């Protein structure tokens, strides 16, 4: 009886050791990690290709304080947009406004190669080296050149030499004249609430 009991104890001891060895120790396990990042945003429903101005305010009672965050061209009928620039503290209220500009063209975000290749005919030295440029946000660019009528309507005068037809492009304009035109146009359209308070007209280069 004693021998059978000793044998049983040894067998249970071996069994326990076998189970303990087969099951990984809790202290040796690597816990699985899950990183989540939550961004505020909104769902935009509209026709594919439509450009929307994504705007926000921090106080909905200030109806004239909407600021443009970016322009988005819908890639799908229902598009979920996220604000990755939102501050950690505070809050924002969002809206998406269909942006229709008949005299401007929307340039979507993307990358392009700036400069000319070395084997291009009549290439100048200052046209390189070729560099990949990435635009992280879309923007609008005028579809047509600024006419003498446009320039005079904003500044009150025109420096053009080729007069007689105000539908012609304005010329004989210095860099200072051009930047001043952009500043005055921005001021005028902000006052008329045609653009948001943080939107600006500027030269494309």
For the structure shown, list the relevant keywords.
single chain; 205 residues; alpha+beta; 3 domains; 3-stranded antiparallel beta sheet; two-stranded antiparallel sheet; 22% helix; globular
Uncertain regions: pLDDT < 50 for 5+ in a row?
1-28
Principal-axes geometry comes out as globular
Spatial arrangement of strands, main beta sheet: 3-2-5
- For the record, the count of structural domains works out to 3
| Main beta-sheet strand count, sense and barrel state | 3 strands, antiparallel
- What fraction strand? 15-25%
**Overall pLDDT level:** 81
Topology readout:
Layout lengths: L1 H21 L18 E5 L5 E7 L9 E7 L4 E5 L10 E6 L5 E4 L2 E5 L16 E5 L3 E4 L5 H8 L19 H17 L14
Antiparallel strand pairs: 1-4, 2-3, 2-5, 6-9, 7-8
Structure description:
The chain is an alpha+beta fold and 205 residues long. The protein is 22% helix and 23% strand. It has 3 helices and 9 strands, in the order H-E-E-E-E-E-E-E-E-E-H-H. It has a 3-stranded antiparallel beta sheet with strand order 3-2-5, with no helix packed on it. The radius of gyration is 33 Å and the shape is globular. The N terminus is likely disordered.
Summarize the structure.
The chain folds into three domains: about 40-100, no CATH class; about 105-115 and about 125-140, no CATH class; about 145-205, no CATH class. Helix content is about 20%, strand content about 25%. It has three helices and nine strands; from the N terminus they run αβββββββββαα.
């Amino acid at each position: 009886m004693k021998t059978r009991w000793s044998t049983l104890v040894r067998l249970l001891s071996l069994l326990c050791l076998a189970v303990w060895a087969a099951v990984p120790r809790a202290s040796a396990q690597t816990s699985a990690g899950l990183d989540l990042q939550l961004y505020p945003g909104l769902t935009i429903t509209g026709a594919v290709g439509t450009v929307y101005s994504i705007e926000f305010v921090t106080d909905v009672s200030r109806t004239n304080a909407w600021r443009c965050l970016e322009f988005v061209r819908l890639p799908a009928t229902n598009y979920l947009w996220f604000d990755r620039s939102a501050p950690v503290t505070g809050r924002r209220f969002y809206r998406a406004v269909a942006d229709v500009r008949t005299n401007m063209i929307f340039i979507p975000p993307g990358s392009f190669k700036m400069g000319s290749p070395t084997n291009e005919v009549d290439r100048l030295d200052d046209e390189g080296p070729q560099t990949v440029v990435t635009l992280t946000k879309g923007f609008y660019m005028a579809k047509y050149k600024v006419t003498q009528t446009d320039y005079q309507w904003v500044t009150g005068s025109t420096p053009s030499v080729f007069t007689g037809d105000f539908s012609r492009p304005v010329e004989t304009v210095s860099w200072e004249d051009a930047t001043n035109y952009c500043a005055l146009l921005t001021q005028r359209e902000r006052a008329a609430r045609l653009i948001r308070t943080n939107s600006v007209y500027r030269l494309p280069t």
